[in-house]
Amino acid sequence: MGFPILSLMIFTPVIGMAVVMMLNKDNFKLIRWVSTGFSIIPLILSLILAAGYDSSTSAMQFVEKASWIPSLSIQYFLGVDGLSVPMLFLTTLLSTISLIVSFNITNRVKEYFAFFLLLEAGMLGVFASLDFFLFYVFWEVMLVPMYFLIGIWGGPRKEYAAIKFFLYTLFGSIFMLVGILIMYLSTTPHTLDMMELITKGSAFSHSMQIMVWVFFFVAFAIKVPIFPFHTWLPDAHVEAPTAVSIILAGVLLKMGTYGFLRISYPMLPYGTNYFAYPFAILGLIGIIYGALVSMAQKDLKKLVAYSSVSHMGYCILGMAVFFIDQASGKPHITGLAGCYFQMFSHGLITGAMFLLVGVLYDRAHTREIAAFGGLGSKLPVYTAFMTIFAMASLGLPGMSGFVAEFMVFIGSFPKYPVVTGLAVIGVVLTAGYILRMVQRMFLGEFNTKWSGLTEINTREIIATTPLLLLTVALGVYPKPLITMISATLQNIVTQVMR
Amino acid sequence: MPDLRPMLPELFLFAWAIVVLLFGIGRKERSGDSLIYLTLIGLVITGILIPIAGYGNLFGGTFVVDKFAAFFQIVFLLAAFFAVASSHELMKKLSADRGEFFALILLSTTGMMLLASTLELITLYVSLELTTIPLFVLAAYRKDQLSSSEAGLKYLILGAVSSAILLYGISLVYGLTGTTFLQPALSRLIEQSVPMLLASGNVNMALVMAIVMMVAGFGFKLALVPFHMWAPDVYEGAPTPITSFLSVASKGAGVVAIARVFYTTLPAFHNVHWGTFVAVLAAAAMIVGNITAVLQSNIKRMLAFSSIAHAGYVLIGFVALPQDSVVPPYGPVSLLFYMMAYLFANMGAFACVIAFEKNYGSYQIKNYQGLSKHSPGLAIIMTLFLLSLAGIPPLAGFMAKYYVFLAGWQQFPWLVIIGLLTSVIALFYYANIIMQMYFSRGETSLTKARYDRPLLLALILTAVGTVAVGIYPEPILRFATEAVKVFPF
Hints:
Chain A is mainly α. Chain A has helices at about 5-20, 30-50, 85-100, 110-130, 130-140, 145-155, 160-185, 195-200, 205-225, 230-240, 240-265, 270-275, 275-295, 300-320, 335-365, 375-380, 380-395, 400-410, 415-440, 460-475, 480-495; strands spanning about 60-70, 75-80, 325, 330. Chain A starts with a helix and ends with a helix. Chain B has helices spanning about 10-25, 35-55, 65-85, 90-95, 100-115, 120-140, 145-175, 185-195, 195-200, 205-220, 230-235, 240-265, 265-270, 275-295, 300-320, 330-360, 370-375, 375-390, 395-410, 415-440, 455-470, 475-485, and strands spanning about 55-60, 65. The interface of A and B includes residues 68, 143, 152, 158 and 162 of A.
């Protein structure tokens, strides 16, 4: 075992939490900078990881393996492949940005930053675990700081939103736990090693695969969220503080799709094939339903929240496509690559959208779209940022969102022409609600009520800029990300088509 | 004169109870601290004596110390330790009879330790009485409070009835087999001693009656639904350290007795499907306990109902018998492990309740509002225990739940599903307290909580236990795996 870069990445925030807890609770400045410092270390480590990652193979890299609870064959097993590396980078990036955004928190600062660092550790753990038990532990550990962050620093209905989030996700988790137990008990010798389960997965009986697939589906669908499991999302988003919304949209939702690709797909190939078509339909419903509901929103944050349901729908649609190309004999990965690209790009764009919504809300104390008007003349810089991300969100070419959606459509058309055709309507609907929002808020006559509003400040610009740069960079030159994930996705498709 | 070495811990503890009793006579000091420390020292020495005394078999199998007994003896001693350590506040309120209080706890603990190490039904019964009778007195210890006397009286009456039922069950077993010794060969004895009954087909009926009555008797100790009605009132009325002792040690006594009886005589009884019978009781306990707990506004009552639910989870492990020669036998091991995890979290939660009561004089959940502001330490540690009870990783309670569910899945998947679903309900009421402590916006004028030294010790040790057992459960799992090897699976 070499240098334990993954453990270091996961546990640096935990150490940071301990350090923050020991600081004087009135020294806000120190708490903020120390926490940010502890979140920058994993960010640097994730860049080193990405640089050192060999994208020519689908094998696990940077593996760390140690016995943990041998009585129950539980291991401390970490490792990364093309699925994990970009997600780890996204998580560390958004965590650091969220902490910078949170500098304006003045209520119970110490607890806030401590919980945030714990949250980061949990998220990183999920993306790096290769032992089922460890995966579940991190998956659950994350809920606790999330519960506190929404419940203490949230909006008017924070208690309701916090407990709804907690119970809803735990309800999903228990299905996952049953799935894990069944898989564990049906292998001989019993194992929780994900790599071994992937090898043995295709041997599971068909009825069992279908049952377990459904159990995992409930757990992951709640996280994504897939219609009709999305009802926790608007409540959580609207009540959560800005930084938590960024993390929710940017990272937590991706855990659902990550779960499908890491667990359901390679371990339960029969179940995956069996449910591919319903999956595509659910993706379509998500796209259209999310867009239609977004159109009806008066609250800007709710609009962005529902747009996430719609955008994650593209992800699901792209994920439903996998087959071996008859002509070339190679696995067809365009759909899955589009899905993954959408995961990454949605993290950047929607993260930034929530950030900017928060910036406005801090100043205006309202998020009602109709209350604004002509902000473009008063806040030119803010308007520029918001408009760019709005365009990225509706899939303007040159931005990462376009690349993702385009790949999803190209990928899914050969297999589901009708569904894809209908899904394209979603693009139009998205343009509809986004443009209407931009028009009503930033264009037209200036509402003089807002003459006291101040421009976006330097700290907020610093937080937003990396997201802006990445969105444009990936929109213009998507190749690095696609190269990184290709080998892994090919391997997944091969496993699903076993 | 037989070599009494294996019985050394029990004998010592009994003697120590007398010492504490005598030491307490006539002492007028305000706090009663010296009594607390004296009792704690006695418990620690007893714990050290367990490995020194070693394992053995006395009085022709009436008294057997094996690893299984040792495991539970440690659980009982730890429970007594934490209960005694958190009694400081109670001592301040009592004007007299302090020595008796600790002596009674020690006597009850002695009873439990004997209970863990007997293979004979009459001894089992006597040990159970030695466990329970001091508890009747302890529950009613606050003579100045009506609710405490009520608790003692209720506990006494229902306890006596349940003992009678248990005794009836035991006598039926004796009638069928001609022996009171628990042994794997019990089924053969039935065939030999009552060939007439066997021929008429009535033997099964008598056996079922015996099992039902014994389960009911033990079920009372475990506060299983439908034998749970005493628990909330007694838990609420009894002095809080005694409530915590009842909720863990008395429950542990029920678990150890039921496990001993059924696991030892397993081959004799498996044809009457007692597993399904107990599984139904477990399901009822989890459903009723968890749903009723949601409705409580008094934290002691809430923890009482939650402990009923936990008895249900424990029983999942109990009924999950090994079906093949899988090593280790998941069910029995998980049963032991669950008791250990539950011990730390529940004793810790009650220690927090005591600390809160001491500082702010209330048991109402709504008064926990804003606790994180004025006493952040107490709020964090309470959160830790509640999350462990709710089964959130990486705490001990999660590991325990994971293990019982794993054990139960193959034979009783429906029971595991009920367990999982009710644990979502459980999260709701545990999280409700966390919400009160952390989320409230109201300004409070309360001061920072202060702790006495023994209570602080109890809080720290239970917190360390909850985290340590959750993160590294391997040593305890190994011990438990060794412990259940005494049974003929």
